Amino acid sequence: MTRSFLGWPAFPEAAEREVGNRQLRENVRRATHTIRGKRAVLAAERPDWEALRDAAAGIKDQVLANLESHLLQVEEKVTAAGGTVHWARDAAEANRIVTDLVRATGEREIVKVKSMLTEEIGLDAALEAAGINARETDLAATIVQLGDDLPSHVVVPALHRNRTEIRDIFVREMGRHGRPAPEGLTDEPAELAEAARLHLREKFLGAKVAVSGANFLVAETGTLVVVESEGNGRMCLTLADTLISVVGIEKTVPSWQDLEVFLQLLARNATGERMAPYTSTWTGTTDGDGPQTFHLVLVDNGRTRALADPTGRQALRCIRCGACMNICPVYERTGGHAYGSVYPGPIGAILNPLLKGLDDPQTASLPYASTLCGACNEVCPVRIRFTDVLLDLRAQVADGGKHPVERAALGAVGGVMEHQAAWKAAVKSIGLVGPLLLPRKIRLPGPLGGWTDSRTVPAIPRESFRTWWKRTEGDAK
């Protein structure tokens, strides 16, 4: 896969392009509505659902407050169990570590378990540049890779594709990378799944090295956990001789008892299942069973930057369930590619700026990729207050001078509001002339055009609240 989000346009430009793709909108709407409908049913059947969300948020906050000690415990336990721990400050260092580890084995083709972190750091491209072919084995990730595409959802990366498009990709590309698609392949889901199974089985049986991420990392035992629905993860985690797991430092949970809370939440939110079909756990190495060499690469890549943000650090609670995307009206209409990152939707709108900073136009545009409706707050299993973080990031963008016209306009309004007499006069004036002079739909020129392109001016009442209150003697009553 050669495509990347590097140099992606700012969200407004990318979103305008994606909104014009009717097929994309239909694909995304169908998929997100299906998943969120199943999730709602399974959440409603749990009388302790809100208590589980409270517990998950509390556990994650406790981890973030004591992250250093938990990570040192992880290193101690993994090392004692026969594994080797590596620390990576950023994407470049993580990619170098993994590339060197694969090179040391002499292998030139490896298999991968779906991992958003390896997508985040661009590991596949780094390995390809080193002459190493990394084959994705998750069905959706395979579709994205074969189509030289980009992921658009954290749980279902190929959510933007329909089955006819997938069939065309399989027929065109499978033969170039291994076993070709069967003759006469149709777009029936069972046939597509069988074609992928046959193609990937050769990869599983021939690979000596596997790369994974992890959904959770249990500090008390140094155990890694991968949750998945297809069994491809289990194949990678057990058949390879060498396993390299690349994990974000925030994925830590203190104990197995804490893990129980998240396993009850993750599958319900991610895929609308009570429990994922495959939950794999491993601790170091065991003689004669599974990979005999295990490396854990713990990656920062902006996470300590996010941790230092008192409001934004809550984004590090995220367990990558995708529930916020499935409910978001903006994501539903633009799809995931508009966000210019492997983390799209509401979580992408806050996590990307927190990890990368707000120094470039693309990242600085993401906090505005929201209606602030708060639906994401309501479904998040770890109670991330997306709207709080979005507003705080918008304030940081404004303070950084990214939107000088908006800042000047709001400053002028604020100046008037600070003086009671001026504010009263302004309100009275707009009530008298506003309904006569201002149309419901206006188009302002220049930088302010972005505000008016998609907004209708609210009807301006002839009488302000204060005037009505005084006229009706509300103060006296």
Features:
477 residues, alpha/beta, 6-stranded parallel beta sheet, 4-stranded mixed beta sheet, 10 strands
Structural class: alpha/beta
Number of strands: 10
The major beta sheet can be summarized as: 6 strands, parallel
Going across the major beta sheet, what is the strand order? 1-10-7-4-2-3
CA-based shape: globular
Overall pLDDT level: 92
| Overall radius of gyration | 25 Å
- Beta-strand level of the residues, as a percent range? 5-15%
Number of helices: 23
Report helical residue fraction: 40-55%
End-to-end distance? 71 Å
Task: Outline the low-pLDDT stretches.
Answer: none
Structure description:
With 477 residues, the chain is an alpha/beta fold. The protein is built from 23 helices and 10 strands. The chain has helices at residues 11-19, 22-44, 49-65, 67-80, 91-105, 116-121, 123-129, 139-146, 163-173, 189-206, 232-239, 256-270, 303-307, 323-327, 329-334, 345-356, 361-365, 375-379, 386-399, 404-417, 420-437, 449-452, 465-471, and strands at residues 84-88, 109-112, 133-136, 209-212, 216-218, 223-228, 242-248, 252-253, 278-282, 293-299. The strands form 2 sheets. The chain has a 6-stranded parallel sheet with strand order 1-10-7-4-2-3, sandwiched between helices. Strand 5 (216-218) and strand 6 form a beta hairpin. Helix 9 (163-173) packs across helix 10 and helix 16 packs across helix 19 (386-399). The model has no long low-confidence stretch (mean pLDDT 92).
Which secondary structure elements does this structure contain, and how are they paired or packed?
Blueprint lengths: L10 H9 L2 H23 L4 H17 L1 H14 L3 E5 L2 H15 L3 E4 L3 H6 L1 H7 L3 E4 L2 H8 L16 H11 L15 H18 L2 E4 L3 E3 L4 E6 L3 H8 L2 E7 L3 E2 L2 H15 L7 E5 L10 E7 L3 H5 L15 H5 L1 H6 L10 H12 L4 H5 L9 H5 L6 H14 L4 H14 L2 H18 L11 H4 L12 H7 L6
Helix pairs in contact: 3-12, 9-10, 16-19
